[in-house]
Amino acid sequence: MSAKKDPSVWEGFKAFLMRGNVVDLAVAVVVGAAFTNIVNAVVKGVISPVVGAIGTQNLDHYSSCLSTTCKGAQGIQIMWGSVLGATLQFLITAAVVYFLMVLPMAKFLARQEARKKAREGTHEVIEVTELQVLKEIRDELVAQRGGGARAEYERR
Fold first, then answer.
1. Contact yes or no for 77/65 (Cβ under 8 A)
2. CB within 8 A of 51, min separation 6: which ones?
3. Which of 45, 43, 51 has its CA nearest to residue 100?
4. CA-to-CA distance for 155 and 149, rounded, in angstroms?
5. How far is CA 149 from CA 122, 134, 139, in A?
6. What angle do CA 118, 119, 124 make, to 5 degrees?
7. CA–CA separation, 21 vs 17, rounded Å?
8. Of 71, 81, 123, 133, which one is least surrounded by beta carbons within 10 A?
9. Are residues 78 and 61 in contact, defined by beta-carbon separation less than 8 angstroms?
């Protein structure tokens, strides 16, 4: 029996890099990092001041005490303000991404797809119409030759 040679680690790594989706993933990470800066700027510069006008921008100092005394680092504090602030930051960021990026892109792609389908539909109608015209021309030529020629044509 011949023993199969397992591919080396280096060959496996080269195959992994050459698959293509690794490059796509790398591009997505770089674009995502750049996009994060845009989203953070919109949230920090536009959304947070609006939210701050309604309430407070920093919820970190809100907490509840589980023990009898909570002074400084003593006692058991539940920092619910930090959790609420992080949750609001996530929701605001998700809303900015959805309403400013995802929704307009989805509408744009839907319009592009509708235009493509309309062009394909028009192309098919033109082909059918041309075929019908050619059939009509054929029938006219056969009719001009006379009835005998038409019967001979239909036999073929």
1. yes
2. 57, 88, 92
3. 43
4. 10
5. 36, 18, 11
6. 95
7. 8
8. 71
9. no
What letter represents residue 109's amino acid? L
Residue 74 tokens read as 């003593």
DSSP for 17-35, written as a single string: HHTSHHHHHHHHHHHHHHH
User: pTM of the full predicted structure?
Assistant: 0.48
Amino acid at 6: D
Q: Which amino acid is at 11?
A: E
pLDDT tens digit sequence for 97-130: 788 888 998 999 999 999 988 888 776 666 667 8
Q: Using an 8 Å Cβ cutoff, are 80 and 59 in contact? A: no
pLDDT digits (tens, 9 = 90+) for 35-61: 888 877 877 787 777 777 777 667 777
